[in-house]
Amino acid sequence: xxxxxxxxxxxxxxxxxxxxxxxxxxxxxxxxxxxxxxxxxxxxxxxxxxxxxxxxxxxxxxxxxxxxxxxxxxxxxxxxxxxxxxxxxxxxxxxxxxxxxxxxxxxxxxxxxxxxxxxxxxxxxxxxxxxxxxxxxxxxxxxxxxxxxxxxxxxxxxxxxxxxxxxxxxxxxxxxxxxxxxxxxxxxxxxxxxxxxxxxxxxxxxxxxxxxxxxxxxxxxxxxxxxxxxxxxxxxxxxxxxxxxxxxxxxxxxxxxxxxxxxxxxxxxxxxxxxxxxxxx
Length: 281
Description:
two-stranded antiparallel ribbon, disordered C terminus, mainly alpha, single chain
């Protein structure tokens, strides 16, 4: 009896799993579904159709068996010669540990302080806009508070230009909360930017935040979306980025744990280990 070895590849090539775009198409469709939740429902419908098509294609290419393609052998086959050697790791001078970026970070408190100062700069720009465009110091904070206060959501310009206790309180809560959140983001991300930090803080982040706001304001805050002046909005974002980035960049830097020895990392007290801030004997 002869033994039929089904694992033996054909003489003219070798079967390999065929490439497929199904997972990518499916993932893109799911992304559009969630994007439509915060923009317009039509985007979700398009995403559902694309995701379903990608899922069906993916399913058909792996069930009941994987789709294969025959890869022909090359005529000019060469012997692969091993090249012994080790991977070169980025090492910090004077240390035995591999470098992990960032080597130094800013304290989280710097992001909080930067967010507060940046929020103050943004508020000044918004205040100037309200005075110039509508002759009111309360206009900007009222349209921000309209996100929470129903009576301001459909109010006209005259109403938004007047004092509103609820609008001021909720507008300040939203403004301070967002300023602290973005300030912490600056504190975490700036140490990871190798160069061009002013460009990142003043241009890139405000541009991304402006684009996100433009895509979501129609759902989140219709009053702000209808009354907003995008030129002044961009100006306020740039002011925030410049001030917050400056405050965070000027703060002290703290070494990350990669600069510690193994004994310091596990907290073992031993002769010759530097004091890590414990109580004096």
